[in-house]
Design brief:
Elements (H helix, E strand, L loop, with lengths): L2 E2 L6 E2 L1 E6 L4 H16 L3 E6 L23 H7 L2 E5 H6 L11 E4 L1 H8 L4 E5 L1
Helix pairs in contact: 1-2
Length: 125
């Protein structure tokens, strides 16, 4: 649900960015949108699935060098949360310790709960 700023009537907006690919231009678009939303004050939850799961595995990141795009480090640091699909992690034999600091493994049930919350917007790449 939208988060109220303590002591005020201000509501924090929330955006879910679901990234399912490791195609560099699409990754750049997803990360740019997420960073823009975070800069605008939104809570941004990045959900990674499929090949995108490796974006948060140090040493196994897919190639990502897109001119004028944010660095992977800067973009991931700007997100409120970063989650990796549990089935996708299992298929790649990944455990929580394999992920960069701040990323976590989460299941579809949690994603659905977030998506069905009032006032949540979602984009998928």
């Amino acid at each position: 649900s939208p988060t109220r700023v303590p002591g005020s009537d201000v509501v924090t907006r929330r955006l879910v960015v679901q990234l399912t690919t490791d195609v560099p231009e699409r990754v750049a678009s997803a990360l740019t949108v997420g960073m823009a939303a975070a800069a605008a004050g939104a809570q941004v939850d990045l959900w990674l699935s499929g090949p995108a799961t490796l974006l948060v595995v140090p040493g196994r990141e897919p190639p990502y060098d897109v001119e004028f795009a944010p660095t992977l480090e800067d973009a991931l640091s700007a997100m409120s949360s970063v989650a990796v699909c549990s089935q996708c992690a299992a298929r790649r034999r990944l455990v929580a310790e394999d992920l960069r600091t701040g990323a976590r493994i989460a299941g579809a049930t949690e994603l659905v709960e977030v998506l069905l919350t009032d006032a949540v917007q979602a984009v998928s790449y």
